[in-house]
TrEMBL record:
<dbReference type="GO" id="GO:0006355">
    <property type="term" value="P:regulation of DNA-templated transcription"/>
</dbReference>
<dbReference type="Pfam" id="PF00072">
    <property type="entry name" value="Response_reg"/>
</dbReference>
<dbReference type="Pfam" id="PF00196">
    <property type="entry name" value="GerE"/>
</dbReference>
<keyword id="KW-0804">Transcription</keyword>
<feature type="domain" description="Response regulatory">
    <location>
        <begin position="6"/>
        <end position="123"/>
    </location>
</feature>
<feature type="domain" description="HTH luxR-type">
    <location>
        <begin position="154"/>
        <end position="219"/>
    </location>
</feature>
<dbReference type="GO" id="GO:0003677">
    <property type="term" value="F:DNA binding"/>
</dbReference>
<keyword id="KW-0805">Transcription regulation</keyword>
<feature type="modified residue" description="4-aspartylphosphate">
    <location>
        <position position="57"/>
    </location>
</feature>
<comment type="function">
    <text>May play the central regulatory role in sporulation. It may be an element of the effector pathway responsible for the activation of sporulation genes in response to nutritional stress. Spo0A may act in concert with spo0H (a sigma factor) to control the expression of some genes that are critical to the sporulation process.</text>
</comment>
<dbReference type="InterPro" id="IPR011006">
    <property type="entry name" value="CheY-like_superfamily"/>
</dbReference>
<keyword id="KW-0597">Phosphoprotein</keyword>
<dbReference type="InterPro" id="IPR000792">
    <property type="entry name" value="Tscrpt_reg_LuxR_C"/>
</dbReference>
<dbReference type="InterPro" id="IPR058245">
    <property type="entry name" value="NreC/VraR/RcsB-like_REC"/>
</dbReference>
<dbReference type="InterPro" id="IPR039420">
    <property type="entry name" value="WalR-like"/>
</dbReference>
<keyword id="KW-0238">DNA-binding</keyword>
<dbReference type="InterPro" id="IPR016032">
    <property type="entry name" value="Sig_transdc_resp-reg_C-effctor"/>
</dbReference>
Length: 227
């Protein structure tokens, strides 16, 4: 390579930075190495040194400091390649990191050749989707798809409710008791009981709490208000 690779290592554990630094500096293709110990410093040193590749720790001053720093860096320097650096595999964090724009991830205790390959592949824009990453991403997309299908399913049920049933369900989801609903709506308790029975029948459920939990978990009323 004519110019060589400039790397920024971001980790709040000095020994980790030192180990990776020692691995990278032995390779002639790596011509410049800088280190940072938190998200803010990562952003600052990226602005100063314009690295080609960043090895970014996720857990630093906060649980997701690396992801936030990744967002900020790629907003201003979209051509920089960022590799997530972590000590253990967490499906949710890995997915969030790829959503933020990282191109690969390596474990901190990975062998020297693995770390070097990750840096060079990222620089060449040829980072592989490793089998374990692909599996995690497929699992996360499947989970999201399942949630979306559930959301549509329950929105469809809610759309079949009458206006009075819908009002009653909203009040139940707000934590109102049957007697409070009667007072708010100026109706008899028998009317509210009848409406709740109809709601449960449409949801094919015998448990009011179950329906309330589903509605609140999926934020259905918030979704409907934004449509």
């Amino acid at each position: 390579m004519e110019q060589g690779i400039k790397v920024l290592i971001v980790d709040d554990i000095p020994s980790v930075c030192k180990r990776i630094n020692n691995i990278l500096k032995k390779d002639p293709e790596i011509i410049e190495i800088h280190t940072a110990q938190n998200g803010y410093e990562a952003i600052l040193k990226t602005s100063l040194h314009k690295p080609d590749v960043i090895l970014m720790d996720i857990h630093m001053e906060t649980h997701t400091a690396g992801i936030k720093a990744t967002h900020e860096i790629l907003l201003h320097f979209p051509n920089i390649k960022i590799i997530m650096l972590t000590v253990y595999e967490e499906d949710e964090l890995i997915f969030s990191a790829f959503q933020a724009g990282v191109v690969d991830y390596v474990l901190k205790d990975a062998k020297a050749d693995v770390i070097l390959s990750a840096v060079k592949d990222a620089y060449r824009d040829s980072s592989p989707i490793r089998p374990n990453i692909a599996k995690k991403l497929r699992g996360e997309f499947k989970r999201i798809k399942g949630n979306e299908e559930s959301l549509l399913f329950y929105i469809n049920i809610v759309s079949t409710l009458t206006s009075t049933e819908l009002e009653t369900l909203k009040l139940l989801c707000e934590g109102k008791s049957r007697s409070e609903i009667c007072d708010i709506r100026f109706v008899e308790e028998s009317t509210v009981k009848s409406q709740i029975r109809s709601i449960l029948r449409k949801f094919k459920s015998k448990d009011t709490k179950e329906v309330i939990n589903i509605i609140n978990k999926l934020n259905i009323f918030t979704v409907l208000n934004n449509i």
